[in-house]
């Protein structure tokens, strides 16, 4: 079996790395009755403050349809509050409750212990380098799309070649 690729599967490696890292944190989340998605929402709101649901979806990497259910459960559990602005009823804003802020204070200790374990295993420089490389990957510009005139010329050229060969 021949491999047609010169490069390793970077998206798959990133997913495996995420799973490897999350093993350090799942126990703490489970002990506090939180799902990974709920924790991501809490971390985002804790770091950035109250925000609109669309931005929460982007910042927490949760698709909007999934986020809706996550926020419903979090609201029922007293972890968040939602409200609409008087000037624009279409937008829903979400903030943490005191219960969530207390939870962050409590769980942050065990989370930081796990980060300490990761730092011991990777070394401080290794962890900092991992952060820097991930930040660099996140900030990559999107791929350059083929310009429309060039694309049309390529299609015409292919069509002409097919006609000549027919």
Gross morphology: flat
Distance between the termini: 34 Å
Strand content: 5-15%
Strand ordering within the main sheet: 1-3-2
Domains, number: 1
GO molecular function: DNA binding; DNA-binding transcription factor activity
Keywords: DNA-binding, Transcription, Transcription regulation
InterPro entries: HpaR/FarR, HTH_MarR-typ, MarR/SlyA-like, Tscrpt_reg_MarR-type_CS, WH-like_DNA-bd_sf, WH_DNA-bd_sf
Protein name: Homoprotocatechuate degradation regulator HpaR
Structure description:
The chain is built from eight helices and three strands. It has helices at 10-22, 26-31, 36-48, 53-60, 64-76, 98-122, 124-138, 148-165, and strands at residues 51-52, 80-85, 88-96. Strand 2 and strand 3 (88-96) form a beta hairpin. The model has no long low-confidence stretch (mean pLDDT 90). A three-stranded antiparallel sheet has the order 1-3-2. The two termini are 34 Å apart. The chain is 67% helix and 10% strand. Helix 3 (36-48) packs across helix 4 and helix 6 packs across helix 7 (124-138). The chain has 166 residues and is mainly alpha-helical. It has one domain (10-139): Orthogonal Bundle (Arc Repressor Mutant, subunit A), CATH 1.10.10.10. It is flat, with a radius of gyration of 23 Å.
């Amino acid at each position: 079996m021949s491999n047609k690729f010169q490069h390793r599967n970077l998206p798959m490696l990133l997913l495996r790395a995420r799973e490897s890292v999350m093993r350090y944190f799942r126990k703490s989340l489970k002990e506090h009755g939180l799902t990974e998605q709920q924790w991501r929402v809490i971390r985002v709101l804790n770091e950035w403050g109250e925000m609109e649901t669309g931005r929460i979806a982007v910042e927490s990497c949760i698709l909007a349809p999934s986020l809706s259910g996550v926020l419903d459960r979090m609201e029922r559990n007293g972890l968040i509050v939602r409200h609409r602005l008087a000037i624009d009823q279409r937008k829903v804003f979400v903030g943490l409750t005191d219960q969530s802020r207390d939870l962050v204070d409590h769980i942050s200790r065990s989370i930081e212990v796990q980060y300490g374990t990761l730092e011991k295993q990777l070394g401080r420089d290794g962890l900092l380098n991992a952060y820097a490389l991930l930040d660099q990957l996140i900030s990559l510009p999107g791929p350059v799309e083929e310009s429309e005139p060039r694309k049309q010329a390529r299609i015409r050229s292919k069509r002409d070649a097919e006609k000549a060969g027919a």
